[in-house]
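User: quick one, fold this
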Amino acid sequence: MNAPLSRRDLIRAKIAARVQIVDLGFETPCHIWTGPDSGQGRGGGYPRMALDGQTVAVHLVAWTNEHGFIPGKKQLDHRCRHRRCVNHEHLELVTHRENQKRRDQARRRSE
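Assistant:
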């Protein structure tokens, strides 16, 4: 008889159901969220999902599900530079300053 899935496994499955795995030239393939996002405004385009009756950012859920708590002075940086990527291996805890620095560097490279 199969044991019921753990909460962690249920969250993984819920995320995986809305992900398309795509090679976008980073170290490993991105897990691109195909579900809803935060819209088009400033800071928009981040994946969103319902979890326990709340709308939450999928990349934050993916990270905490695999790595645990995000300290108050830290935020997640998408090392692959794709906001819709929810591959926890592409995320890194950084300070706000470091995240902004990396964003600016990526923008300069793409100009």
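User: anything notable?
Assistant: The chain has a mean pLDDT of 94.
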